[in-house]
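Support request, please re-run this one:
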Amino acid sequence: MSAFLAVIGLRRYLRDFPDVSTKEAVLSLRRSDADYAAADFENGILLHSILPDTIDFADPQVGIRQSLSVLIEVHNPWWCRFFPYGRQRLAMALTPDEFQTFRSAGLFNEQPSHEVVQWWDSLAEKVRRGDAERRTDQGRYAETLSLNYERERLRSCGIEKQPKWIALDDNLAGFDIQSYMQSPFGHKNLLIEVKSSKSNPLRIILTRGEWDAAQKYDDAYVFHVWRLPSEELIIKTVQEIAVHIPNDNGSGHWTELQIEF
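Re-run finished. Output below.
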């Protein structure tokens, strides 16, 4: 907050005296105003160089909120992950000085304004989008692992065909890769749903659509579950997954579930 106190004073002074240099403004504030005795002008000048000119601090709370948005975007502090979980969850991760800055921006008011609620919701949504993008990247990586695995398996089985990356063209097919396996009647399709997880124990999310497809194709359908980053593959059959599937009761209908291995 001492840095924000400095930049607020600095920008107000430069607004009133636009021909004065930043250095001269700091010297004048320090000499003439006792309120700035505790201000951190070294970091205030740094903030002044980072923040866009449109943040004028005419309303200090609004200016600090706008500044926090910029700084969070630039630095992506570790506690950003708590934005989707609510204000109190984030508060527990902040240092006392960070918490004071948030309070000075009106972000922890008991009766927040509509603008404050929008600020929180905007940051939470940005974190969710980032998480979704990372999950997509991880999912695609796991699919490439399965494609490579299947290419090698088909080669070792003497099957002169290549697996197809179905999810790349149709994400609603109910499976990610079409491969092949031997049968008494020749080559038979093998449909693969690819999952991945970095958690311990291993956790995956299964949708109702994926399970409906698995039941439809039964023994022609398997699950590839990749443990990352070690790239350990666990293959599960439909029957092995079936023991984890809940029943629909009454008017309830499950759409998504988490399975631990």
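The chain has nine helices and seven strands. The chain has a mean pLDDT of 92.
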